[in-house]
């Protein structure tokens, strides 16, 4: 089976910890520190691997922190293709405040990526045999918003499919070229269309417009506590999020995307793809800090969602 390739233009070392109270000008003592390899595509690859499917994570990394990222990826037993860069790989940190239940996330902008370094990232993609590539996360500094166009061009040359998860100008630029599957959050979709989308009908209509204009064959919109919807030219499905006790929202979108790509690669129905993605997103919020969805939690929640769908609790429309 061909691996699902992920590309992370701006990877990170994700640190997480807990503190009783976070106050300015005080030394904050933390506990339960954890470190994981991160960035959108790497997170997606971690979940794909956890779900038992082959994944190959392609990423640029540099400096002493890049070596730490490599070590974390090796510990996670991921297959990787690293492109060496001059800049230092960034370190992000999430701190959970126990007294309030709030979570604080600190995300640096990351290193500058040169044109030559990006060329080597694209060349690495061209050298691998794949059917699906997940281009996920923010673009590194130094890259133009159209940088993902080159990923799309490599995919088209291979007859392969691009799964996109990014935001802002990079999202807009990539959709102008067209992708197979895109996963905006509700906020990202609203930013894309330039106005609020207050209800499911408006959200589905905006997603369908992207499909009709050839921006994507499939649009999945993550809606936080309201679950997610998925739209193609023929179908529109919405599924509410299952009730779970949330411990952290970190990685929920990446977990959703990973499970959805696995389902697509297995040729599951659009409704089943949505349910598998929602199950993984819900499984991710069960985990503390920057931990992602576990396979056992995904399968258990997915089984419950399938039962609910059979009882008529999922909704579809032609909006």
UniProtKB/TrEMBL annotation:
InterPro entries hit by this protein:
Carboh/pur_kinase_PfkB_CS (IPR002173), PfkB_dom (IPR011611), Ribokinase-like (IPR029056), Tagatose/fructose_Pkinase (IPR017583)
Carbohydrate kinase PfkB domain: residues covered: 28-290
PROSITE patterns, per the entry: PFKB_KINASES_1
Gene3D superfamilies for the chain: 3.40.1190.20
Would the keyword NADP turn up in this protein's UniProt record?
A: no
Q: Does the keyword Kinase apply?
A: yes
In terms of CDD domains, this protein maps to:
FruK_PfkB_like (cd01164)
Any Pfam family hit: PfkB
Give the keywords, sorted: ATP-binding, Kinase, Nucleotide-binding, Transferase
Q: Which family does it belong to?
A: Belongs to the carbohydrate kinase PfkB family.
The protein's name is Phosphofructokinase
Q: List the source organism.
A: Sphingomonas canadensis
């Amino acid at each position: 089976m061909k691996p699902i390739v992920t590309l992370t233009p701006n990877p990170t070392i994700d640190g997480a910890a807990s503190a009783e109270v976070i106050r300015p000008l005080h030394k904050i003592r933390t506990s339960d520190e954890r470190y994981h390899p991160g960035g959108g595509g790497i997170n997606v690859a971690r979940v794909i691997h956890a779900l038992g499917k082959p994944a190959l994570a392609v990423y640029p990394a540099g400096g002493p922190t890049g070596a730490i990222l490599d070590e974390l990826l090796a510990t996670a037993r991921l297959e990787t293709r690293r492109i060496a860069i001059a800049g230092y790989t960034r370190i992000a940190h999430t701190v959970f405040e126990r007294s309030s239940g709030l979570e604080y996330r600190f995300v640096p902008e990351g290193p500058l990526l040169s044109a030559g370094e990006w060329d080597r990232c694209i060349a690495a993609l061209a050298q691998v045999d794949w059917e699906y590539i997940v281009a996920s996360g923010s673009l590194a500094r130094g890259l133009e918003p159209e940088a993902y166009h080159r990923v799309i061009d490599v995919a088209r040359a291979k007859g392969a499919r691009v799964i996109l998860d990014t935001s802002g100008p990079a999202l807009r630029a990539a959709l102008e070229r067209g992708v197979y599957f895109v996963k905006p959050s509700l906020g990202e979709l609203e930013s894309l269309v330039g106005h609020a989308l207050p209800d499911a009908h408006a959200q589905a209509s905006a997603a369908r417009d992207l499909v009709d204009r050839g921006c994507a064959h499939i649009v999945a919109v993550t809606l936080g506590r309201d679950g997610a919807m998925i739209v193609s030219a023929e179908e529109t499905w919405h599924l509410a999020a299952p009730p779970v006790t949330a411990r952290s929202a970190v990685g929920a979108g990446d977990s959703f995307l990973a499970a959805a790509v696995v389902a697509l690669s297995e040729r599951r129905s659009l409704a089943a793809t949505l349910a598998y993605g929602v199950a993984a997103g819900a499984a991710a919020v069960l985990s503390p800090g920057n931990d992602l969805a576990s396979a056992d939690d995904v399968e258990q929640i997915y089984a419950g969602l399938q039962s609910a769908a059979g009882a008529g609790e999922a909704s579809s429309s032609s909006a």
